[in-house]
Amino acid sequence: MGGNLAAGKVVYDVPGAVAEYGSSRAFHASRYDPKYFGQLSHDEILAFYVKYLPDFLLFDYDFVRHITGRVVVALQKSGRVVAALQEAGRVVVALQKSGRVVAALQEAGRVVVALQEVGRVVVALQEADRVVEALQGAETLVVSVEDTKARSDALEQHIRNVCKTMRFPDTVSNKTMGYYMHFDEGRKVIYCSIPKVASTSWKRVLIKITGNPTDNVTAISRYRVHRTLPMLAFDKDMEEKLRTYKKFMVVRHPFERILSAYRDKLEDWEPHDSVFPKMVKKKLQKYRDNPNKKEGDNITFTEYIRFISQPGRGTPEQRNEHWLPMHEICHPCAIQYDFIGKYENLKEDSEYLLKWLGVTDLMDTFPAAARPFHASRYDPKYFGQLSHDEIMAFHAKYLPDFMLFNYGFV
């Protein structure tokens, strides 16, 4: 982003789209002119974005938003998003009850949602940016089935836009594609499992619906959970199932997910406690805070971030499924999902999915994690340890996840 002094005023420009005004040689740069932008490959677009990432972050420019002209801004309590994109990116915030739309403007109009030209959204949040709860006389916001599906559809459309704009590959090898996918032939449904996104709980649900319906899902051992369900990658009819079965996945803010993985798998473990420290410590030595550390010493959070944020494909240890980027697990640009939930909306999304799967007896007791690690997105105990370079390296590594699943870093 730069400033041009023209006719006594400064004009600021989007990175990659500089225009001169009032000069003898005016070059008006269309932001994403296909004559130029259309020449770039996926890798070239990402390389440019990573290089100019500080400008996009500092000056509040959204890369994909400026390409597509679509904006989705619908803030709810605890940062939840309810948005349905319709007709060229306009936002419909709909709280439905008995088929009627309830407008959630309460308590002296503290929330003003203004729909403007070409899908622009002005959201005026008053009183410390709090969002008014949209149900009268209720403590919590209950999102209807229609809203939950609309939110998923909006995210799926956003993913399609990003995939097209950023030219993500739309094909991957069969085994790579199906390795983290499990299926139920009876209900004709496929679940793409992302570790640290309630995956153990969802696997317990699938075990219940594919096995003994009287099973107590919370009592199913972790060993059985991760070794019982059929893997799509080894099914002879994989392509047919991918084409005809309904598919769902659940995502999570990238930083919260990798922090949860660190706390669960690496923090304060002794060498004899787990395979993960043993596996990682052998490859981590050059990323140590102190090169004199011994292999058996505990792994710090900064060492972990440096280890997983290295550019390129990385080693098998750096590509472990617990911190592998989510888009490399479920390939949303190659597979169109019927439902994409978010960990941040786990209650509402799990209720929708359990109804969808016909397991309504679990509605009030969605299986809890055996070892829950609640990762605060910017917990100073962890995030505060990172340097500028480490934060930027992490963001660059996980940039596709931030973009595809519509998560803001700042």
From TrEMBL:
Subcellular localization: Golgi apparatus membrane
GO cellular component terms attached to this protein's record: Golgi membrane
SUPFAM superfamilies in the record: P-loop containing nucleoside triphosphate hydrolases
GO BP: carbohydrate biosynthetic process
GO molecular function ontology, one term from the record: sulfotransferase activity
EC number: 2.8.2.-
Keyword terms, alphabetized: Carbohydrate metabolism, Glycoprotein, Golgi apparatus, Membrane, Signal-anchor, Transferase, Transmembrane, Transmembrane helix
UniProt membrane topology term: Single-pass type II membrane protein
Family stated for the protein in its record: Belongs to the sulfotransferase 2 family.
Name used for this protein in its record: Carbohydrate sulfotransferase
